[in-house]
Fold this sequence. Notes:
Blueprint: H1 3-44, H2 47-80, H3 83-117, H4 124-153, E1 158-161, E2 164-167, H5 170-174, H6 179-208, H7 212-247, H8 249-256, E3 267-274, E4 279-286, H9 289-295, H10 317-345, H11 353-361, H12 364-380, E5 384-386, E6 390-391, H13 392-395, H14 402-433
Antiparallel strand pairs: 1-2, 3-4, 5-6
Amino acid sequence: MDVTALLLSRIQFAFTISFHIIFPAFTIGLAAWLTVLEALHLKTGRPEYRVLFEFWLKIFGVAFGFGVVSGIVMAFQFGTNWSVLSKMSGPIQGPLLSFETFWAFTLEAGFFGILVFGRSRVRPWFYLFATAMVALGTTLSAFWIMVNNSWMQVPVGYVAENGVFAPVDWAKIIFNSVVWSRFPHMVLAAYLTGAFCVAATGAWYLLRKTYNAEAHTMLRMGLFLAAVLVPVQLLFGHFVGDYVHDYQPAKFAAIEGRWHDEQPAGEVLIGLPDPATESNKYEIKVPVLGSIIGSLSLTSKEVGLTSFPVQDRPPVLIPFVTFRIMVGCGIVMLALAWLGSYLSLRERLERSRFLLWLIFLSFPLPFIAILTGWYTAEVGRQPWAVYGLLRTADAVTPFLTARAALTSLILFGAVYTFIFSFGTYYIYRLLRAGPSGRLDEAPYGARPGRPMSLADGEPENLRGYVGAGE
């Protein structure tokens, strides 16, 4: 095994997954937002909901495309850089990833075509149904990915035979107990990403004094949704911590920065873990709180890293720091959502330019929280690729050279940087252009072969409507 090739392969996978996860996290929440907008438009007939739908549908389409392109690389990497992992876990991971493709992506992509091309060709109720199916597809995609990753975190329902992990109980694999804390935690994170991006866009338009009607709708709906979801997300975050505490005690000790067994255990708020001395520098610690968080007890004994062999300990610094960044982002989002919602109900939010600036600048927070949460989970799992069964060092392709790994890393880095820059710039142009003004559409039943069929009618609730930006 080439140690350098192993390191480069880990960096490459971390880089590509970090890039890719941004887009699904955004589109899962955005698909749900589109469903809400379409339902509100059908129920109320208010044209601003339709304008916002068409506006965010464009952004969804761009993000969806980039998510698909960036996700294709994931499958290739399993074969090129992690062939041993693919061989040993393929009987389980292969079907799970196939389920994600055929059950989720096909549903998502198929109905997305109706969203783009079918509004004038299907009934309004079916268009809403198609929108909901796209949202369901994005959610199912997250479900299957989380099932796959949760099996790597807590392997169940398998038997080791002939050098591979063969499934013996698909129900245990799919309905793994840890999935039901990790999957909602991921979906809620995606919904919060959509909520804060929508609210930040509304705040931006209000600061620029453009699209005032649409901006108010986006700001209020985004903040109200976030105000409800952030506390629920914090609760599911605690449930995720419970599974880590019970199934991955070494990871839990690394996250807590706890080097030695303690009874009762304190909670390290901040510090600088030092593996050489097996202690934390500049530590600020709250007595007993660690036992309360870990076991809901005032007297429980909590395990420390020194209870595990050195070769079985995860790197401490990364999960210790990233976990605190994730929690910090959550607390800031909670404060902004609650304060913004309160002022919005009092009709005072629009007059507070300082808070509008804070909300506008908050849009990176959910992305940062998702990335740091993912780093906490994946780096904290080390040194295992499949926890307790297959070490990461043994999962890499045996004949992979450092030169080949470096070449692919540079190539992926260059291509992804170009794609990300182009995609970000294009989405920025769409956001800056704002919601389109007049809504001209062919009535249901109009035929492309008869251009004048457009004159046969116009939806009453949209007739003569001009967006606030015109």
